[in-house]
Amino acid sequence: MRDDRRARRHGQTIREILDVAIEVMTAEGVAALSLSEVARRMGMRPPSLYQYFPSRMAIYDALFERAVGQVLEIAEQHRDLIAEDPAGAIAAAQRATFAWEEANPVLAQLLHWRPVPGFTPSERAYEPAVRQVELLAEALAAAVDAGQLAPAAATEEGVALYTVLMSGVISQQLSNEPSAPAGQGRFTRLTPVALDMFFRYYAPGEEGVPDDRVVHRGRAPAAS
Questions:
Q1: Long-range own/partner contacts, residues 12-19 (CB < 8 A, 24 or more apart)
Q2: What pTM was computed for the model?
Q3: Per-residue pLDDT for 219 more than 70?
């Protein structure tokens, strides 16, 4: 029982340290994380903090793991929708992911950019990111099987293009309107358009769904 309580206290302290680290990064910038400032806000001496995290990079690594784990959880929550409508599941998961990233801009920067010189996530921290890409590939393959996409969409190149489009949307949002409410940003409002661009580029053609099929219900505006 005593060991269990000690483990719970240890885990709680780690979570508090990470929360305070996010506060410092929000105020000073992602790359400006200071262990002494985290310790000061925690009401502990720096040597005590080192018992939990031996370096700044260790905190960044734990934050990266936390962030990508939460994004992976969003993807997994939408996995059951793939069998019914793969395209709809992809769109819903992407909207939910962007909402999380807009609500957590510091962590989103850590995921999408390289704001901290010398930081590379550990293999353990990066593992959920690998799984996230695998889930995306599975969803795109399901969309191919459902006649919503051409086979090329589920290739390595197709997956890469999808991530380029979506990373571009959120990067523009974080760079230009980091404080915009979720779903109201000038760039994240373009998410449906970006998704439609991807689905049109990989449209299956005459033997699949109509060329003007869009991810969000309805049809795209007629070409001028």
A1: 13/52, 14/52, 14/62, 16/42, 17/42, 17/49, 17/52, 17/53, 17/59, 18/59, 18/62, 18/63, 18/66
A2: 0.86
A3: no
